[in-house]
Design brief:
The protein has 110 residues and is mostly helical. It is built from 6 helices and no strands.
């Protein structure tokens, strides 16, 4: 890998790495940490946002079957993140939003 590409990739990883962790912010509950994280992600590059869409798609596709108790929390967090970061690839954005919204609808029916 060329050094410039490696640096670019590293920058995306840094942009997407959670800052508001339980260890670093023990006074904030999960909801507050995730809200702050979503606000932070709103300012990331369009490339990082596109990567985040793929991550959300991958993690959301089976969460309803794998963990029905945690799925509503997780999918709601993903929905909030997506609403705040619409600047990445538009097709992937729509796919991520569709998967999250379908998951939330499935949970409501259960």
């Amino acid at each position: 890998m060329e050094p410039e590409k490696a640096i670019t990739t590293l920058n995306y990883v840094v942009e997407l790495t959670d800052v508001y962790t339980k260890e670093d912010y023990p006074g904030l509950n999960r909801k507050k940490r995730k809200r702050k994280e979503a606000e932070r992600l709103e300012e990331t590059s369009s490339e990082s946002q596109t990567i985040k869409y793929a991550d959300i798609i991958d993690n959301s596709m089976e969460i309803v079957e794998q963990d029905v108790n945690f799925a509503p929390v997780f999918l709601s967090e993903c929905h909030d993140i997506l609403k705040r970061m619409p600047n990445g690839n538009p097709e992937l954005y729509q796919r991520a939003l569709q998967i999250v919204e379908e998951g939330l609808k499935t949970i409501k029916r259960k």
